[in-house]
Every structure is written in structure tokens, then in C-alpha cells.
Amino acid sequence: MAPLPSDAGLVERVREMRPLLRERALRTEQERRVSAEVVSALTDAGVYRMNVPRRYGGYQSRLSTQVEVLGEIAAGCGSTGFMALNHAGCSYIAALFPDEAQDEIFTGPDVRIGGTLVPDAVAVATDNGYVVNGTSRFATGCQNADWHLLTARVASADGPPEVLWTAVPMAELEILDDWYVSGLAGSGSNSVVARDVFVPAHRVLPLGQLLGGGSASKANADDPFYRMPVLTLFCAWTAPNALGLARAALAEFTERIHRRGITYTFHERQYEAGVTHLQVAEAALKISCAELLTREFVARIESAAEHDEPYTQERRAEIRARSGYATRLCKEAVDLIASASGASSLRQDVPVQRAVRDLHALSVHSFVNPATNLELYGRVLSGLDAGTPFL
What we know:
globular, alpha+beta, 8 strands, eight-stranded mixed β-sheet, Butyryl-CoA Dehydrogenase, subunit A, domain 3, about 50% helix, about 15% strand, 3 domains, Butyryl-Coa Dehydrogenase, subunit A, domain 1, Butyryl-CoA Dehydrogenase, subunit A, domain 2
């Protein structure tokens, strides 16, 4: 077997893809899914291997490397970046399933795995497994996935229903064409439907076990890489989507101001105007602050994994709050850039308007929603329980 490319090589290969992603971004949005050509390029670059166990040919890339990779993808196309982070996260979750399930799922290192955490489906216990029925919304990248990690509720006679992750081949699920949205429109986050799908017991992972830091995998049980809290990781995987969008918007803005003036003023070139200097400086500093916040909490996650440190509730709440705050800063920066970009930037072929809509969509995602995450962290700082197990 040829030696695996280094993390540095992975980032560079993805960076070289950015022109392709930028060129395909409008088409991706219009078709409401990532094209096969782009998925092939992501595969060739090794993006899908980042969280796949090494024994299956995966990379187990450092989290900081993954953040760089996902930021580079989002800088080219926000929708593609959002699909990539979802598939990266679900590959990590699949590595926590029983080893028998992993042998079925990871038949190659480039397998594409999607999933949803909204438990709208219902699972009924049967011999040696469960029968699953129901619709699972927000199945990002489902058209390009080989497997789907579908969450389902199991009724309980003496308490709240148990929630399970169930690993299902995409061929056994129906995809609904219902992803008509204003932001991240090309991510292909359609609903998928299970109709009497049988899931064997070894392809099931209780959500409670996952949130508690448990793993059903014996092969990965002692690997620090797979002991990082999943929801904390999703905060780390989602933040670079905002960073990539904001960086790209700023780069585009600083290029456009040399080609256009400010209508109904004496400024023939926007870059000469004092107001532009204030706008570009403030946007750049907001993005820099978001980068620093992200770099810091990613370093904390990596350090805790390296030294096997416990993840306290306060630490988890703080990381979730930081990811939300970084996203808010990026949104504010792009809103500022858009307000200074003039009416010509409303054209669909001008990326800044897409970045605005994509960041507005990202900001209401539960992992990085700024207001919700601040409240959770504030509760913990005030001596209260966070009020949610999703930390």
C-alpha cells in the first residue's frame, strides 16, 4: 500500500480545488446539490478519509487539519463545505459503532456517510434488530452518500423513548426532493424516508451512550482520537464553514473595490474612500477574532485528547459558546461587506450575496446558534446545569 499523504498534503490538495468549487458554486446552488464532479474531486483529495480509522485506510487527521480543510472547502463553496463537514462528522460517529458494523460500512477509505440527529423516525424492536419507519429531515449530502446514520425513537413503557443511531445503506432509503431554501441551498439537505427498513442489532448505537462519551467499538476503544466528545467536535467542524465563507467574501470585496466606484458620489474607485477603509478594517478584524476563537478552542480539544483530560460541562459549554460567537462574528463581517458592496453585488453570479445567505442559514444551525450557545454557557457560569445533554 502506498504511504498515506501527510496532513499538510491534504490541506494543499484541497486548497488547489478552490477554483473548481468557486466555479461550480452557482450551479451547486441552482441544482440544490453538490455535483458528481466536485464529489469526485473531494474524494481524490482524500477529504472523506479524515475520520476513517487507519485500519481501513483512513487518515485520522488532526482536528486542526480538519478545520483547515473544511475552511478551504467553504471558501470555495459554502454548500459544499457544509456537506463535507456533515460527512466528516458522520464518518467519526460510524467509527464508534460496533466493529462488525464498521466492517460493513468501511469497505473502502473513501466511503461517504451522512446522517441526521433529528429523531423523527420510529424503531420497533424485532428479532436480532429493529424495523425503522419514518422521515428523517436535513439529510445533508444524501444524494452523494453511501450510508446514512438515521436517528430513531424506540418507545418505552416506563419513561421517555430511547433514541438510537441506526446505520442504513442509502440504497434502502427514499430521498424526498424537498430542499428548497434560501441559504446553503446546494448542500442537498433533503429528507430521507425509511419504510420497514430492517437494521440488525450490530448496526445500532444508542444516542445516550454516544453523548456520554461511550463507544461500542472495541478496536477504537483505547484510541484517544475516538474519545473526543462528538457534539464538541461538530462545533469545531462547523465553525470553519463560517470562517471560509467570511474569508472568501473579504477577499472578493478587497478585489472589487478596485474595479468599481460608489454610485452618486465623487468616488470613482471605492478603495479610495475613507468609509471603505473603515468597513474593510472592521470586517477583517471581526474575521481575525473569529479565527483566534476557533484556533483556541480547537487547540483545547486536541490538548484534552492528547493528555486524556476530562471534558467538564463548563468546558463543553464554553466550546459550544465560542463556536457560536465565532460564527456570529463571521456573519457580522459578511453583513458589513455586503452593505458596502453596492447593488451590483445582488447579482447571482457575485459570490458575496450567496455568502450572506449561507451564513444566515449556518447561524441558525443548532450546533453554532449564537444566542442559544451563549445562554447555555451563561447558565453554567451562573452555577446552573446547562439544561441539555447536547454538549
